[in-house]
Amino acid sequence: MKIRTLEQKLLIAVTIVVLTSGFLISFLVTHRYSVSLHEALIGEARYLTEAIALEAADLILTRDLVALQKLLDQQRQSNPSLAYLMVVDRDRVPAHTFGAGVPEDLIAANTPAPDGAPQPRAILGETGEHILDLAFPIFHGRAGTLRVGYSESGYRRQVNRLRWQMAGFTLLVLLVATAGGVLFIRRITGPVKALAQAVNRVDQGEIKVAVAVQGDDEVAGLARSFNQMVERLGAYTSRLEQQTAELARAHDQTRTFCRLVQEIGSMHSLREIGRTLIDRFLEILHADWVRLILVNELQAGFFLISAEELRTELDPAAVDRVNAAIEAMQTGANGRKAVTGLGAAPFVPPGWGRDNGSFEAVLLSHEQSPFGILLLGCGAQCRCGPREIELARTMAEQAAGVIRRAILHEAEVQDLHNRLECSAAFCGIVGKDPTMQTVFKLIEDIAPTDATVLIQGESGTGKELVARAIHQQSLRGAGPFVVINCSAYPATLLESELFGHEKGAFTGANRLKPGRFEQADGGTVFLDEIGEVPASAQIRLLRVLQSQEFERLGGTKTIQVNVRILAATNRDLIEEVKQGRFREDLFYRLNVIPIRLPSLAERQNDIPLLARHFLRRFSAAHSKPVRTVAPEAMRRLLEHPWPGNVRELENSIEHAVVLAKNDQIEPRDLPRALERKAQPTSTLSPNPTLLDQERKVLEQALEQSNWNKKEAAKRLGISRSTLYAKLTRHRLRPAKAR
Questions:
Q1: 701 and 648 in one domain?
Q2: pLDDT tens, position by position, 326-357
Q3: 400 and 435 housed in the same domain
């Protein structure tokens, strides 16, 4: 209970004085009494120890251990104050009164005094009993040492009894002093009590309180001062109420700050950290919008973070505007004009103008080094005060270490991503699938030669790009690259297009026209859709492949050219040869170096890479700020079978870019052909799972070993028990057992 009144304090003071004096007297009396009793106890114990030692000396010297034990037992029974007796002779105990054995620690707990007198020592027994242990040498130590434990219980009971008597006497004195003190204190503390009650009423919320002033003593002066204080308190009350709202708001802001630091401390993604900061700033600032510009130290650019996106900006003009603003805000020179350049795209939301309200730009620094700018815009009724803006700046700077770590991480990820994409591109061909990497390596190997190459693959797989890559990597790269689409000309005009014609060679040939082979002299001819060439042209084409010679239509002059021939087709030329639609000798002349391009369905891992490649190209071509593909849209791209291969994907991305409404492609922007459809039931899965692959490998190993499980396990590099477990899982059995 708290001491509140003067009466209580005076009563407590009287009580303390009486108790202190009473307990002091009690302590002195009991202490002296305790000392005298203890000395008497020690004297009695010494006398008894010497007497027992004299009787035990003869028994020990005569080796009468039975009599010695009997002597100790008789002494223990005849004297209740004795806790134990024992004789110690060279770390042996020939006789003792312990029923359960001598405690080991007790033997070495005491030794005789150097002068041969009993050596007393206080010992605490296992039961908590206080014992006075005496060690006395028997026959000058030749017969061992007598150890006697003398209980202090009786001595302590007498001391405690005296203490209780003194405490009772002190309590009686206290009661008498308290009764007299109450009568005296109440007569002199009445005015003080009234003043205290008035103070309590003020504490409970009553402001209009006054105390009667009687006399000119100290209490009256205190009452006058109290009345004046109450008047001033009323004036201060209105100010405190106004400050309460401000303190509550500051408390909320501080709590938000602490929560923010705790949240972003465990984050690693710059997108997560940026959005969390923006959300907290919006709570504090009550602004219409907030954006963060974070400087990217690894490259000449910056990150622009809003509530909707994380944007990497590398535009030199935008970077120059940010650097100029940072420099101006650092030096303080013409800072307001410098940040004016940040009040336009891409730094502010679309459709927002400086006429809509106020605009602020705050420099963010860490260890005297700027790392970004905080941008915020408010409408006409802006509630962003200097205190709130300063709090937001402090929060961002306190989190500067985490932000800078996230900036470096994001920049490194983007740099690594760019490197991966660059490494996946080869002469304009994008692909990191192993099948495409094999094609790239083959192009590098065959490009320096003049060998004829036959490029096969489905329509839209990029056969012409491969042909161009071979030409660019070859020694003929500086020469012409002539593309001839053999399916684009009727049979009557194809030969004229390939080999040219003389004037008057046929109706309408009113002038000499060089053929494509002549135009490609010193370079490369790419015959696209070679499977569409008619039989008559195949014969002349075979001659060009063999001798690099031909005659124009209607001419007799043999023309010698130096060209490399690359051909491409989406047909199966072997089947065409079997059907008699394509010359076998021409096929083998073209098929010197065959290259097969995989379909897009066979290289699904390249779909995201190609999608981003086309997205960048068409975003720039159509001047649209589309930067990413939404996860759901990318999922649709991955699930589509792509019968039109890369060309179909390219057209789909252009379609989505044109229709995109924001900075990323959504599923609604994709062509309707890419909408999810129920897949027909099929026994073969186009995307086999890991279990399917495992079953296939097991079947192959078992078939090759003629279902010899030991041999199959050896081929697979697993134990027989593992093989049996896998056979059970897949329910595989020999054909006869099925």
A1: no
A2: 888 877 655 445 566 777 778 888 777 666 66
A3: no
